[in-house]
Amino acid sequence: MARVLKARYFPRCDILNAKIGNNPSYIWRSLVKPKDEIVDGFRWRVGDGESIKVWDDWWIPNTRKLLPVQQDNEIRDNLRVSSLIDRDNGWWDIPKLRALFFANDQTEIMKIPLRNPPTNDIVVWSEADNGIYSVKTAYRSLWQNEHPSVDEDNSESQRLKSYWRKIWRLPVQPKVKIFLWRISRDILPVGTNVESRIEEAPSDCPFCGLPETQLHCLRDCDWTRRLWQPCSDNGIFKQGEGFSGRDWFLNSFESHSNENLQRFCAILWFIWKERCNHMFNNKKLEAEEIIPKALDWLSDYLQAQGTVSANMNHPSNPQGWRPPPSGSFKMNSDAGVLRLNGIGLGCVLRDWNENFLGAVAGKESGTCRPVEAEARALVAGLREANRRGWSALIVESDCMKLIQMLDKGEEDRTELEIWCKEIRELASINEAFSGKKVEWAFVPRKSNAVAHCLAHLDGSWDQICIWTDSPPYSIRSLLEAEKAQFV
Ligand SMILES: [Zn+2]
């Protein structure tokens, strides 16, 4: 049936570009209507780039912005993504990217993995994590488009339910949870909300005198804008017009990884605290002080709760890192969202005597799916292992999803599949010169502390850095502490 329709109505183009013809049959018309709505959910996964139009198709993942912005004014119709790929080295043609795109788009494009020899371009369903189209996910996205917020019983309440679960699981004080809950119900006692309940209450912002909505209070006041400035690349200021503070919060809530979410919520809480402090006690912190204070407060709190995840020493932790069996090597790998912007990658290799052999760390701006970042950390580590002939590897990651992908080879149409292919290929090269299989294992984060620390170094470099003789200073005490467990 699909083939018949294709032959008749869009013989020369793919379904994404099909339009209703002059004499459409009833069935095609009724198919096209929902198609127009769900087409937003499809994007391309770049293979050889021959099928993808640079300025017309959605092909840059990890962004809701469908198309790149054209940097020069010259019109380049019909430019295909294939012409951005350097055939000889099988990678992006960097000078061309520089000439055509703005920096943000360049960064995102260079994160798209390419295979050599190239694969075909394929269409990926962006509404499902694994990129595979299903009626269920399509229905959900259609439903959400048609019932943006009225549908309390279904998608919207489902959405809220998933926030509750996330909010209640956040390692923050109950009063902060209640504060977060209030934002998501749009009942935070900001000026405009108070005014609607209490007559003659002032609705002005205590900082600038404009009407104080949730969004104004938490993001748009001059004072809060200034304090968010260092995070502006993280999309803090996106989704501006027409959005309420609640929408902004809920959207941000969905897009942050857990760790980032803790920070985001801590900052919001501090903004609110300072706003009240200013209103009732007439005290005021400088905007620039808020983020550092909020992050210090968060790390103190986590430490007190014993849920510390970062580079704290656990010299006597019985479930910490374990050395590999004699004659083999262990590589720990991790990725993380950095303090203010970007993602970090880290890998560390040690032998069975707990000796340090090498570390790899890197930093990139922009965002990507956490599991993809984890896969890329592993690629960086394995490339280095192969270059230096480190073999008989046991590879540990604290990303369950990635290990499952590598173990079971679950179906996936997104870029993750390409990264996993790359990982398997690097592993098989490694196996070829050692004759020993590379093993994968999931470990809890506390057994992955050194890699975690490397992934969060947040140094000033923006390329992959490699240490082989001696470890970078920031992981030394942690390495010593883990070693001390076995002496
Ligand atoms: Zn204000």
UniProtKB/TrEMBL annotation:
InterPro entries documented for this protein: RNase_H-like (IPR053151), RNase_H-like_dom_plant (IPR044730), RNaseH-like_sf (IPR012337), RNaseH_domain (IPR002156), RNaseH_sf (IPR036397), RVT-Znf (IPR026960)
Gene Ontology terms for molecular function: nucleic acid binding; RNA-DNA hybrid ribonuclease activity
Domain of life of the native organism: Eukaryota
Residues in RNase H type-1 domain copies: 334-456
Gene3D superfamilies the record matches: Ribonuclease H-like superfamily/Ribonuclease H (3.30.420.10)
Residue ranges of every copy of the Reverse transcriptase zinc-binding domain listed in the record: 133-228
Protein name listed in UniProt: RNase H type-1 domain-containing protein
Biological source species: Linum tenue
